[in-house]
Design brief:
alpha/beta, 5 helices, Mannitol-specific EII, Chain A, globular, transferase, phosphoprotein, 5-stranded mixed beta sheet
Length: 151
C-alpha cells in the first residue's frame, strides 16, 4: 500500500502564516478521516512546534501530531504559493510542508520510523528538487512512495 496518497497532497495553497497552515492541516486531518477532533490535532501540532521548530532546511518543514484522536498513521503534504516564516533551522522561509499524523499507540515506533525516513529523504537534492518541481500530486506521490520503498 502506498503511504503517500494523492488526495492528501495540496499544491500551491495560499497561506500567509504558519498558523494558517496548521489550521489547514488540522482541518484536513478531519476531512480525510485521520482524526475526529480538529481542535485537538491543531493543539498537538502547536505543542510539538513549541518543543522546537519542525522547519528543516531549504524551505521544508515536517510538523507532526501524535494523539489518541488520530486513527491511523498518515501524511499530508502542502506546497505554498508564497513561503511563510517557520523559524527553520537555516533561517529560510518554508514553502513545502510534509505533515505526519500518528496515533498515540504508535508514538514510539511508527512515528520515529516515518519521521526519520522523511527527514533522510529531504537530505537528497534530487528528492527536494523533484518535490518542488512537481506540478501535480501524482508526481509527488510517485517520487516519495518510490523513495520510501527503497528505505
Amino acid at each position: 500500500m502506498a503511504l503517500i496518497k494523492t488526495d492528501h497532497i495540496f499544491l500551491k495553497e495560499n497561506f500567509t502564516s504558519q498558523d494558517e497552515v496548521m489550521h489547514f492541516l488540522a482541518d484536513q486531518a478531519v476531512s480525510l478521516g485521520l482524526s475526529n477532533d480538529e481542535n485537538k490535532v491543531y493543539a498537538k501540532l502547536l505543542e510539538r512546534e513549541a518543543e522546537g521548530t519542525t522547519g528543516m532546511m531549504d524551505g521544508f518543514a515536517i510538523p507532526h501530531a501524535k494523539d489518541t484522536t488520530i486513527t491511523a498513521a498518515d501524511i499530508i503534504i502542502v506546497s505554498l504559493v508564497n513561503p511563510v516564516d517557520w523559524q527553520s533551522l537555516d533561517g529560510s522561509p518554508t514553502d513545502f510542508i510534509i505533515a505526519l499524523f500518528i496515533p498515540d499507540s504508535e508514538a514510539g515506533t511508527t512515528h520515529l520510523k516515518l519521521l526519520s525516513s522523511v527527514a533522510r529523504l529531504l537530505m537528497h537534492q534530487d528528492v527536494t528538487k523533484g518535490l518542488k518541481a512537481a506540478a501535480i500530486p501524482e508526481e509527488i506521490a510517485n517520487l516519495l512512495n518510490s523513495k520510501l520503498a527503497e528505505n
